[in-house]
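Hey, can you fold this?
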Amino acid sequence: MFLLSKIVALFSQPLHWVIVLQVLTLIKATRSPRMARACATGALALLLVIGWLPIPDLLIRPLEQRYAEIAPDADLHAFDGVVVLGGAMEAGYIAMDHRQPLLTDGAGRMTAIVAIAQKYPSMPIVFTGGEGDFFGTGPSEARRAGNFFTTMHLSESRIVLEDRSRNTYENAVFTGELAGIDKRKHWLLVTSAWHMPRAMATFEKAGWNVTAYPVDFRTGNSTPLTRYSLAMGAQRWQLVLRETIGLAAYRLLGRI
C-alpha cells in the first residue's frame, strides 16, 4: 500500500497530465494532425484551468471546514496530551546538509505545537512520523522534529517521538503501540485542516479518543476570481486530488 500510495501521488500531479498530452501531440503530429491539435489544445486548456485558484480552492474548502478551527486562546486544560502528525519537516536528504531544522509549507503543525507547549507546560506532546519517501535516506522526520523542539527550548522529557510510521494509518496504529500512551485519554490531534477529515476518521477507527485541532489552512471563505498562479494551482490541485483519492482508498480498505 505504501508503494501504491506513491504511484497514485505521482499521477495526482496535474502537470504530469499536461506532459502526457504534449507527448501525444508529438506522436500524432504526422499521422493524425487533427488528433495532435486536439491534444495540444487540451494541454493548453488544462494549464489555464490549473492556474485559476478558485477552482481547487472550491474543492479544498469543504475538507478544511469539516472541523471547526480552535482559537489560539481556547482553554485546553481538559486534554491529556497532543498528537501531531508528520508532514511539516523538510525531507531527510535536504535536512542532512543543514544544521538548522527545516520546515515545509506545513509549518503550521509545528508552530501550533510550540504555542500549546508554552501555554501548557505539563501537557505531553507526541510527534508521529517516520520516513515518508520511498527511497528516503537520513534521519526520520520524528528525529528532525525532535531537533526542532529542542531549538524551541521544549523539555525532552515531555516529547514522545514515533519514528516508524509512513502514512496516516500507521500514524494511528504505531503511536497507539508506544509505551505509556493511553488512546482512551482525551487527546488533541494536530494536522493540516485539509488532511483532518481522513486523520480524525483513521484515529477514531484505531480506537483513539481525539479532538481535531486543524492548522495550516490553505483557503478562506472565498477566493477572489482574479487569483491566478500556475505554481500554486498545481500544488493545490495535487493536494485535493491526493487527499480525495486517499479518503476513497481508506474507505475501501476499511481504515476509516
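Oh, and this one too while you're at it.
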Amino acid sequence: MTLADDPVRRDASFPPDPASAGAARRLLLGALQAADRVRWAESGSLALSEVVTNVIVHARTAFDVVIDVHPDQLRVEVRDADPALPQQARYDEQATTGRGMALIAAVTDECGVHSLGALGKAVWFTVGDHEVGSDLSADELLDAWDLDGDWESLDQPTAGERTVTLLALPGALWLAARQHHDALLRELLLYCAEHDDVVVDLALAGHARGHIGPAVVAAIEDQRLAAGPGGPWAPYGGGTSALPWLPAGLTITLGMPADAGLAHAALQDALDAAEGLAVAGRLLVRPGLPEIVAVRDWACEQVVAQLAGVPPSPWPGTAQERFETAVRTTPDDDEPWDDTAIRDSERGVVAADDANRIVAISRSLAHLLGWEVEDLLGRRVVTIIPRPLREAHVAGFSRHQTTGEAHILGVPLVVPVLLADGRELPCHLLVERAPRGSRRSFYLAWIEPAEPT
C-alpha cells in the first residue's frame, strides 16, 4: 500500500482545556509518521498549536481536529462551536497576544476560515514542500486568510434579545482596554491550567468578549471613514499629527441575550482575578492602568445593570482627580534608583516608570509647572496633562505597554502641558525610552516651552 493509494486521515474531538493543544500535536505527529511526511511536522505543529490555542482562549468550546495527509500536502481542519469570525488583530512586534493568525499564514501554504452557520466555524490550513510567508509583511500575512461564509448574517438580532446602550464610550480607551484584557485572559487561562488558587468561569467570561467588540470596532471604522484621510486627531481638533487618528466618544446600542449579564459579571470577575495576579507579579503582563480598569468595569456594569432594568449611565470620563494618584503597582515598582542627574538637570525633563508614575523630575521643569519636586514624585503623569487629552494619553500608553505600539517615541511634538494653577502651556515634547534593570523600563520626556515665558 502506498500513500497515493490510501492517504492517511486522523480525527479526534477535544475539550477546551490547555492540555488539548499537546494532544492535538501528538495526533498530528502520528499521522505524519504513518504517512512518512515528518518533514511537515514543524510547520504543521506550530500552526495547529496556534489554532487550538485560539479555540481554547476565545471560542471556549469543544472542538474537532481532522488531519488528512496527501502525497503533496498536509491539510488540517479545526472545527469549534463558536460562529464568531476570528479577529485579525494587528499588534506590534512586542505584543504578548494577537499575532496567531499572521503566524499561521507565515508557516503554511494556505489558510482560511469557513462558516458553519449557527453551528460554529472551521479553521483550516495546508502545508507542503513550498517556501511560504518569507517575503510577506504582517499585514500581507493577515490579508492572506481566506474568510469564506456569510459572517455578517451572524450579527443580526435574534429573538429574545434585550437592548443595551453604551453612552459616550471612549473608543480609543476601550480598544486599548480590550487589548490589555485579551492578554490578561490568555495568561489567566495558562495560570489556571497549573494552579488551583483562582476559581473563575472562563468559559462564561469568554462569551462576553464578543458582545461589545464587533459593534465598537465597526462604529470606530465608520467614524474614521467619515473623518477622511489623515484625521482629524480628535483631542487636538484637527490638523496633521505624528499621532494616530483617535475616535471621539461613541454612543452604541446593542442587542444582547437576556442572560448576557451573567457572562459580563463572569468576565469582570475573571479580569479582577487576573489583575490581582498581575499586581502580585505572577503574570508576565503588567497590571492595567486605573483608567483601563475603570472603562472595563463601566462597560461590564452597564450591561449587567441595563439588563436588570436600570437606565444607562454615560462613561464619566478620566478627567477626575482620583486618576492622578491611584496606581496599581507590582512588587518591583519601588526598585530604588538615583535620580540626582535628572533632578539637577538644567533642561526640563521628567521620568516616568511603566506604571505611568512620575519617578523623577528636574527642578527647573517642576518650577515651570508651578510644583515642588517632592509634590510631583509618585503622582501619575496625567497630573501634568490637560484633562481633555488624558484618555488619548492613557490609551496610547496602555497600547504601548500591551502591544509595543510606539507612535510618539522619538518624535518631536508641540503639546499643551497642564500647570498647577490650571492654565495650559504649549511645549516642545520629546519622549524616549530607557532600560531600567533587567525587567523594567522608564520613559524620559524632555519638555521645553514652545514660546518664551
